Amino acid sequence: MNDNQKKTDAEVLRLKAEGLLKTENPPGNASTLSISETDLAKLIHELQVHQVEQEMQNEELRHAWATGQIAVDKYTELYEFAPTGYLSLSKEGIIVEVNFATSQMLGKERVRLKNRSFGFYVSDDTKPVFKLFLEKVFTTRLKETCMLTLTTYDKSPLYVQLTGRLSERENHCMISMIDITERVRQEKTIKESESRFKSLFERHNAIMLLIDPESGKILSANQAASVFYGYSIPVLCDMSIDQINKFSAEKIKAEREKAAAEQRNYFIFPHLLASGEERIVEVHSSPIEFQGSRILFSIIHDITARWQAEAEIILKNAELSKLIAEKDKFFSIIAHDLRNPFNTFLGYTQMMVEDIESLTLAELQKIALSMRNSATNLFGLLENLLEWSRIRRGVTNFEPALSPLMSTIEESIATVVGLADKKEIEIGFEIADDCNVFADRYMLNSIVRNLVTNAIKFSHRGGKIAIAAKPITGNLVEISIRDSGIGMNEKMVENLFRLDEQTNRKGTEGESTTGLGLIICKEFVEKHGGTLWVKSEEGKGATVYFSLPAGEGKNDE
User: Fold this and answer.
1) Which residues on neighbouring strands pair with residue 358, listed in sequence order?
2) SS3 category, 162
3) Whole-number Å distance between alpha carbons of 442 and 446
4) Closest CA to 82 of 107, 95, 96, 99
5) H-helix or E-strand containing 87?
6) Torsion angle of alpha carbons 12, 17, 19, 24, nearest 10°?
7) Residue 131 vs residue 286, higher pLDDT
8) What is the full DSSP assignment across 476-509?
9) Inter-residue contact 264 to 287 (CB < 8 Å)
10) What pLDDT, in 10s, does the model give residues 303-356?
11) Residue 6's pLDDT is what?
12) How would you label 195-204 residue by residue, b for 16+ Cβ within 10 Å and e otherwise?
C-alpha cells in the first residue's frame, strides 16, 4: 500500500468517525448499533496501524537528519580548524568564506574578512599573478596554482601558495592557501649564499674549479684558473680534469671518489698548462651542495717553487751528508792509512840506526825493499789525497787532447809494474795500435794507475791482469781492466762508490787500501762524459769498465 492510498484510507476513516459521532440513533434499533460498532472497531484498528507506520517514518527522518548533521559537523570541524587556509572567492576576488587558519594568516577576524577583496592583501608585484590565477580558475574549470606575496596586519610579507578550483555552484571558487614563508626565506638565503659564493669564486685570486665527482668534468672555473692554465673559461668548462692532470685517469678517479666521500681532501698533482709546461699543484677538494647538486669545490695552489726548493734542500742535505762522510773518510785515512805505513817506515829506520853494524847485507836489502814499498804506498796514498782535495775544491785542470791509448796506458802503469813483478802477476794488453782517445792525459794516467794498482793488490801471486779496449756506440771507447783475484760479492759492488760505507779491505798479501782511488777514477771518467762500472763475482776476480770519447770523433770536430 503506497502513501497516497494510506492517506486516503485515513481520511475516509476520519470522515466515517465524524459521521457516526453526529448521528443520533433511536434506542432499541439494534441493527444500526451493530453496524456502527463494527465500523468503529475497524476504524480504530486502522488508525492504530496508521499511527505505528507514521512513527516509523518519523524515526527514519530523525535518523537521516541526525546522520546528515554529523557529516555536516565533521565537515565544518575539518574546514574550521584545518592547519591549511581555506577560503571561497567570487569571480571578482571577493571573500565569500574563510576558515580560522586563513584568518590567522591574514591577521584579521573572519567577520572582518568576509565580503572584502582578497586582492587588498596581495602585494603590488604579485597582483598580476593573482588576477591571472582567478581568470584561469573561472575559465578553464581546472585546478590552478600560483604563488603570491601577501601583506599582513603587521606589514611583514607572507609568502603563500594558492590552489583553486571552481565549485559546483560555479559562482565562486574554493581555494586552499599554504604558508610557504619559511621555505621562501630558506630558498632566498640559499640564493644569497650562492650569489656570495659565486662572487667570491669569480673574483678570488686563488685558482678555483668546480668539478663533477662522477665524470671529472670541469663545471666552472674562475678567472685565476683561466690565467694559470692558459685556457679561456669556456674552454676550461668544456674539459675534464683528466686532461690537465699528469696522473692516470684511474688514479684521478680514485682520488675524486675519496674527496666526494670526504675521506681525503688534500692532494699533490702535476698539472699540465696550455703551453705544455708542467707545474706541481696542491689541491684542496671538498664536496659541497650547489644549485641542487653535490659537486667538488677545489682550491688549487701552485707549489712548484716550494717543491723545487724542498727538492733542493733534500739535495743539499744529501751533499752535506756526503761531505760529512768524506770528512770522516779523510780523517780515517790520516788516522789509520797514513799512520800505519809511517809507523812501519819509522820502525825500519829506527832498526837501521840502532842495529846497522849487526845487520847483514841481505837483511839491509830486505829492510830497504820494505821501506821502498812503504814509501811507494805512501806516495800513492798522498797522490790520491791530493787529487781528491783538488776535485773537492774544484781546482782540477781539465785539458783533454788526442792521446794514443796504448802508449798512454804503458806510461801510466810504469810506476806499478814493480808491484806486479813482485807478486809474479802477468799484465796483458788487447788494444789496437791505432786506438786513440780524447782525454786529459793527467786524469787518464791517474785512472789507469789506480785501477791497475787495485787489480794487483787483489790478485793472487802468479795471477793475470788483462787490459783491453774496443770502440762502442756513441763515438766512445770502452776500456776494461780484468783481474783473476778474490772478487767481490754483490753488496760490496753496490757500495764501492759510497764514502759513507766501509768498502776498503786488505790485499791478497796484506796491502792496505782506502777505496778512495776508485771514487777518484769515477769522478775523472764522468768529467769526460763517460761512465765507470764494475762487474765481479766473489772468488772469480773483477772487471772494471770505463768509457772515454774516441779520438777520431773529436778530430772530426
Assistant:
1) none
2) strand
3) 6
4) 99
5) strand 85-90
6) 160
7) 131
8) EEEEEEEE-S----HHHHHTTT-TTS------TT
9) no
10) 899 888 988 899 888 888 877 776 776 666 566 566 666 777 788 888 888 888
11) 47
12) eeeeeebeee
CA distances from 43 to 8, 48, 51, 55 (A): 13, 9, 12, 18
Calculate mean pLDDT across residues 417-431: 89
Closest among 155, 160, 164 to 184, alpha carbons compared: 160
Alpha-carbon distance of 176 to 191, in angstroms, equals 28
Cell of 127: 597582483
3-class SS of residue 142: coil
- The CA–CA distances, whole Å, from 521 to 64, 321, 378, 496, 528 equal 122, 21, 18, 12, 11
Q: pTM of the prediction?
A: 0.43
H or E element at residue 219: strand 218-221
CA 446-447-452 angle, to 5 degrees, is 100
Grid cell, residue 468, equals 783491453
- Give the separation between CA 42 and CA 40, rounded to whole angstroms: 5
Angle in degrees, CA 340, 344, 347, rounded to 5: 135
Going by DSSP bridges, is the β-strand pair 400-404/426-430 parallel, antiparallel, or unpaired?
A: unpaired
Beta bridge partners of 517: none
Q: Is 59 exposed, middle or buried (0-12, 13-18, 19+ CB in 10 A)?
A: exposed
Sign for the pseudo-dihedral over CA of 404, 406, 408, 409: positive
Which DSSP symbol is given to 394? T
Q: How many CA atoms lie within 13 A of 474 on its CB side?
A: 10
